[in-house]
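Lecture 7, part B: from sequences to assemblies.

Below are the input chains for today's worked example.
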Amino acid sequence: MNKDIRHLISKYFKESDLSPAHAALFGQISQLLEDKPPAVPESRVSTAIFRQLQAALNVFGICEANDVHKTGIPSLIAMARRLKKECADRIIRQQKLLREMKHLKTIQSLASAGSWELPVTNNTLELPGYWSDELYAVLGVVPGSVDPISDNYREYVHPDDRQYLSTEVDKAIQVSGRYDIEFRLFRAGDPLQQRVVREIGELVRDEASGQSISLIGVTFDISDIRNTERALFKANVELRRLFNVMEDVFFSVNMEQHTLLQMSPSCVQLYGYSVDEFFRDPDLWFSLIHDDDKESVLESNKRLSKGESNLCEYRIHHKNGQIRWLEMRITPTLGHDGLLVRIDGISSDITKRREAELALENSELKFRSLLENSNDAITVTSEELKFVFVTQSMSRMIGYSVEEITGTSVFDFIHPDDHVTVNGLVSQMQENPARPIHFEIRFRVKGSGWIWTEGSVTNHLDGDIVNGYIANFRDVTYKIRYRKALEASNNRLKKTNNELDRFVYSVSHDLRAPLASVLGLIEYTTSETADENVLQDLGMMQGSIEKLDRFILDILDYSRNVRLNIKVQDIDFRQLLTEIRDNLKFLNVDKPPIRFDVNIQEESVFRSDEGRISILLNNLISNAMRYYDPGKPEPFIEVNISLGQEGANITVKDNGIGIEAAYHQKIFDMFFRVSEKSNGSGLGLYLVKETIEKLKGRIDLQSVPGVGTTFNIFLPNLF
Amino acid sequence: MDSNSFNYEKVMVVDDAEIDRFLAKKVLTKHAFAREVLPVDSAVNALGYLSENQENKDALPDLIFLDINMPRMNGFDFLEEYKKLPESVKKKCIIVMLSSSLLPEDRELAMNNPYVCQFLNKPLTADKLKEVVNP
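Predicted structure of the full complex, as structure tokens:
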């Protein structure tokens, strides 16, 4: 039997159900198909075959007319052939269907797309529906483990999206017939595994009635797509931002056809020309190069044809007229024939860098010329005190060449007596890095001994640019010699002064001793005689010797004021004035009594040098006593002292003969005497002035001849 | 003043200046200050005398006028050596410094010495003798 028929039979008829007659029938059909007349062409048999064929064709929906006249052999052959064809078609369709199902399943799996179908009756979903395995996979559950019903499905939808899904589905069923939405799912119902899905649903209607039959759809996981999209978007934004801020210009050139392939838009900033302008004129980039640099650019670009990348710096004319410095880096691509096919490059604006470099070069040049032209020697010394760098001025100063000095130890050039100074400087510098330290040092001069130098040295061992001890100094031999001479002469003078002081003191003392002896003898002789003439002579002798004695005492006081240091102590003016008054008693022996008033206001303790205050009060009071006015009925001396925080205000006032205004300035001068008759030394007020200066005070006077004199003194508290 | 009563029996005057020794002798005698004046021209000789007569109480002076400025050994040097003399000597003698020095330092130094009881400035006068402590 024909195997197609047999196949057909096995598919649509159960062979076991076939009666032997039918089996024979099929054998006959097979023969018919092989264009062989049936072995037994009998009309009853023909009719039976006809009916069988008719029934078989019916299965395929083909209705043959129930025409017994067509039971003739040719008619039966035609029917058998038709049946064969239908059978073959069916097999092909089935195979195609299987293929498509398999295809669908694979696609669904590949696309992570699950499909489903739900029956619809009277515009409502019916249960249960159909879920593809892949839909289960999208939901993250084992296929078949959940009943394919809408309520179960909703369980996996994000709670916030459930209402949205229902609304869209209802809308599709009632109105639009289709929906295409995105919503969120929880895989396996786990909120942590949130996925985004896209679901497309389509309502299927019965073609004849227009009634909705089912809703079929596809649901696929688009989480990854969404994530990728987002990342891509972000990357795009960043890239755009990068391009916008990127000042460098990227370009590619096809070297075979000499055409620009691409150029980044930042060329507008760099050159002032747009991308289009560069595309229109392939030589534009070259024409913009500064004439002086064109050749070097061409020269360096020759490397490219050897396959070597090139880096060059050159100037261009910007459209705005400015000159800009460019750095161009080019990577070549050679074809398999070794010829240059393409270049890719980046051009960067390095104007600022170049300007800075040029400025640096310039300032270095200036600095160097400053160094070399400076009269100061400048040296840089290593930590081991070897000259690392010396200026020409150093060479000029000491006569050795720069080469002779460099690399040698500083000690080779410094006077042995100053080596200790150098070591001191080093330890000072180590304690105070970056601080200049002053020095005076003798340097060896080629062939002619030593010079004195003066300058400063700074520890820059940790310096950024120069590491070492940096010194600058100059020849001060003349100055130092002068100063040393001055110091020596000053010391001599001090010594002389001291000797003079001692001399004055000792001479005064030695002069005074015999005077005292003579005075004693005069007094003794006076007491021994009653002869008026002798007594008068003795009186004159005594007066003369007392004058000499006072003069010597004044010189002694002066010498002591100059010589002695100030000795600060609490001053008791009452005691002091009593002593002075007692000491001066003798002055008043043969004169009318002079009233002596002392008025002291003490607000605080006064501290100063008692010896010197004694000298100055002694002098002022003794002057007042000596120059009293005999014409006045009541001569007086009034001493007012007020002691405050600042110091002492002292006034010594008398109603004596007074001093003419013309002499007010002169009375404080050394050896100045107002009157020939006065038997003073001319040192008294000079001493007062000197003493007050020593005590940091001040003095002035008011005096009117015939009225009296007032000295006002201020003495500060000393500590 | 009673002419028969002297303030001191024996007064030594140590001074290098002859005129001062002369004057001192005159004044001391005139004002009956001392029965006997013993002028000595140097501190060395004064020490020698005291040392020699340390056992002879009558020969020792009751009072010594001592100058400060003297060659070789001055008044203060004398006091340093005087310190080493036996107590018998030091107990008997009163020392009064008699100097033309006006230096406060000299006066201070003298007054701080335990054997010096007074400091007088030259010249020696009757008034100044009155200030000298009585025995």
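Note for the exam: Residues 3-97 of chain A form one domain. Keep this in mind when comparing with the next example.
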